[in-house]
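Progress note, project year one: complex with inosinic acid.
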Amino acid sequence: MTVTLVIGTQWGDEGKGKAIDVLASSYEYVARYNGGNNAGHTVINSQGTFKIHLVPSGIFYPNTVCLLGNGLVIDPSVMIEEITALQKAGINLENRLWISPRAHFIMPYHKILDELYEKAKGQSATGTTRRGIGPAFADKASYNGIRFGDAADSSYFLDKLNTQVLLKNKIVQALGGGLLDLQEIFKEYSSYYKILKPYIKECFPIVQEALKLKKKILLEQAQGTLLDPDFGIYPYVTGSTTLATAATAGLGIPPRSIDRIIGVAKAYTTRVGSGPLPSEMTQNIAALQEKGATTGRSRRIGWFDVEAVRLSIKLNGIDALFLTKLDTLSSLDTVPICTGYTLEGVKTSYIETPSFQWDKITPIYQNLPGWKEDISQIRHYQELPPQARNYVETLEKHLDCPIQWVSVGPSREALIERK
Ligand code: IMP
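Model obtained:
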């Protein structure tokens, strides 16, 4: 298999960072194709603990080339912060980290507008990461975006920026924000460009060459399938397509070259931000509490939602699953899983439920026996308590998809691979 795609099957934060960190060891290229620095991976390895939002997790393997494709929107200040932190940890980035000049800048006014829209929407706010993602993608779609490559020519860049500042000042002021200063933004972004220039390179020929030489490429999706603007529960979604198909447009790789799609699913469900979470827990289980890697917000917690993950598997054509955080469920007497939904007493499905009906959905649960043992040191599937194996195999049956990896802790080594 030369091209593998790794994708989150839930509402993001499935543990893709861990999955990619484990899988990347055998890949020569790791590429991102969607989203921006709304993503957040925590990678724990022998070089330290890293919270990364943009740079693909493959960067920790010294011979892996990392690409940030044209489908991304990038805050250059965050990119510079990450580059600096990686360099400080002794990681060499020369000739192995490339940003597409077609990727769009997240500008200061995108972050301001994200904030202003959310405030103006009040109760019906999306609960965005406030990183300017939606406004940056909206600008891309409405031909108002500014790309990394545009900054190569300062008068071209200034001209584009001037038009945008004129436009955005009208909108920002109407929503109660302050005036944007063209020269200030120009100066700030020109200096970012200067720092990032050595990393900006057209990714298409790199990908083409890698395909020609049958090099191994790992495609890294950001966010989760259920945050997709079309198949998520709109408007509680993110600004860019999160499906596997987005890789073809977001990196410039032909769909037929993707050999294998691996879905990452957490052993339960989490969500940050607003919007429906059908299997949301009513009780507070301390062991399951988590904070978002990007915003530090508390994640909402739910039981594993088979109905939702099944949709992700079908939408993306997932071949195998990487199940994360099974160890976190240890110590529960019973572990419910959500196998479907009813709407006003009638069985329904995720895909048939319109946005305005989600608050009336009732989950159908199947209670599975829990286990009490600490499983974090187990490395062979047969050594797991029978209840934990039953949990994995019941999910597998409902999902009709093999669970090939079971992660039992945050480190690279805390993993069970099923043969
Ligand atoms: P935005 O992507 O910042 O516009 O936020 C839109 C929605 O997607 C919000 O509910 C965010 O919490 C959620 N979101 C965006 N990126 C991620 C992610 O990487 N993990 C989990 N949720 C995310």
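The first strand starts at residue 3 and ends at 8.
The longest helix spans residues 154-174.
No further modelling is planned for this target in the current period.
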